[in-house]
Design brief:
Elements lengths: L15 E7 L5 H10 L4 E9 L7 H12 L1
Parallel strand pairs: 1-2
Length: about 70
């Protein structure tokens, strides 16, 4: 398993973290701990969407496109 809480993100300037409210793969507690350790990360919670469906969510797609356009 890869533990994001131990990730070294010093060399990365901007990160967008998308997470879902009903994730079957990654518990929200893990995501929230990760975000707490890295407060500069932009985060967006996608409602009513599971782990494997986020890639089809229009709000998620729009957020990614907006992030990449900056």
């Amino acid at each position: 398993d890869f533990d994001l809480r131990c990730a070294n993100l010093e060399h990365i300037e901007e990160i967008l973290e998308l997470y879902v409210d009903e994730d079957e793969e990654i518990p929200n507690e893990d995501t929230l701990q990760f975000l707490k350790l890295h407060p500069s990360i932009q985060a967006l919670k996608i409602e009513n969407c599971g782990h494997n469906y986020i890639k089809r969510d229009q709000k998620a797609i729009a957020a990614i496109l907006d992030f990449l356009a900056k």
